[in-house]
Amino acid sequence: MTLKEIVKILNATVLNGSDMLDVEVRAGCGCDLMSDVLAFIKADAILLTGLTNTQVIRTAEVADIKAICFVRGKSPSQDVIDLAQEKEIPLIKSSLPLFEACGRLYQNGLQGCSEIE
Amino acid sequence: MTQQKEITRVQELIYEMKVEQVMVKDVITVEPDTPMSDLRSLLRDKRISGVPVVEGDRVVGLVSIEDFIKTLSDGNMNCLVKDQMTKNVKIIYNTDRLVHAVREFDRWGFGRFPVLDRKSRKLVGIITKGNIIQRLLNKLEIDYHAEETQRFQTSHFFESIITDKAKLTLQYDIIGKDFNRAGEASSNLKKSLKTMGIPQQIIRRVAIATYEAEMNVVIYADSGSLTVRVTQESIVVEVVDSGPGIEDINKALEPGFSTADDWIRDLGFGAGMGLNNIQKCADEMNLESTVQKGTDLEFIVNLNGEGKDETI
């Protein structure tokens, strides 16, 4: 699934990386605990989270996460957006709660991290 | 590298370079009225084989060791330089291409040429075959070095190091309680490993484990250091801090066990998964800690291993 499709499904706003919307995302992961993200996420997945600090970007960088979607209408600070820009990680945000955002993507065929190699 | 290529580069250089880049600038000269007997000590002391003969600022001849030997054999040591010198001197100009100098050497068979300034016609240098060879070797060495550096940076660098055993140590400082910079060391390490051409899966495992370890230092200690030793066999990461230490290591290793405050949990950490994550990513992990003193964590990721958890 491309990031562009995800933006459409979640009715999301693009915070940065509007030139990277064609990237292909292999799976999704919904989580607020970064240690769990590090433990369970697969490379090239999208992370849906309600956490908006710089650690999310660092985690994404370290774990080869393709894109990040902030849920529940949360917006990160400019520092966080700048860091993501520097690391070339696109950020989007949606007003949906975590469960519903994940549910919609799953319904539309995006797989979970335990389902892919 | 083929011989053909080297020859081509030398040919290229002699077309590129000018005589003034190669010539010796501090020219030793003699006057026409210098006695031949003085020439002996001059040639010997300066370790040269010939000098231009100058009158005012005009080159009027050239006297060499051959002329000196001839004078010796004639038993005519009382004569002057002007009697023995070569008068019909072939000169070249400072702005000539080196290739012209090389052709002149071939053509005349001389050992040296005085170099004149093209405009003022004054003597500005002297050039020998030895100078040319030396300068070319020097230039080739610079080129080669630049090429090597380039290759070093862009490709799999362990493969380009010829040695029986290579060991590279990278060191990063970790600043405690600085959450804006937390993760920077891991981020920089990840970049460096990429430059080295380490396989992606390995980098991912090292980066995740290092990030967890770095977060532990940032959360609990005031400062720490990250030392990474990369060899052809493995990557060994050692994270040392001077924090509060761990009271019960076995308990700390239990998934979900945590002593973290709420504010740490707000950052998305402190869920009691850090050490488990490190264990999961590494092939080997050693943890030593003394309460009130600090913690020393070491983990190893093998490079040629069976590839522990491929799905990480």
Name a few traits of the molecule.
heterodimer; A: 117 residues; alpha/beta; Udp-n-acetylmuramoylalanyl-d-glutamate--2,6- Diaminopimelate Ligase, Chain: A, domain 1; six-stranded mixed sheet; 36% helix; globular; B: 312 residues; alpha+beta; CBS-domain; Heat Shock Protein 90; 2 domains; five-stranded antiparallel sheet; three-stranded mixed sheet; 12 helices; 22% strand; rod-shaped; disordered N terminus
Topology diagram in text:
The complex is a heterodimer of chains A (117) and B (312).
Chain A: H1 3-9, E1 13-16, E2 27-30, H2 34-40, E3 45-49, H3 54-62, E4 67-70, H4 78-86, E5 91-93, H5 98-107, E6 111-112
Parallel strand pairs in A: 2-3, 2-6, 3-4, 4-5
Antiparallel strand pairs in A: 1-5
Chain B: H1 3-16, H2 36-46, E1 50-55, E2 58-64, H3 65-73, H4 81-84, E3 92-93, H5 98-108, E4 112-116, E5 123-128, H6 129-154, H7 157-160, E6 167-175, H8 184-195, H9 200-220, E7 223-231, E8 234-241, H10 249-252, H11 262-266, H12 274-281, E9 284-290, E10 294-302
Parallel strand pairs in B: 3-4
Antiparallel strand pairs in B: 1-2, 4-5, 6-7, 7-8, 8-10, 9-10
Helix pairs in contact in B: 8-9, 9-12
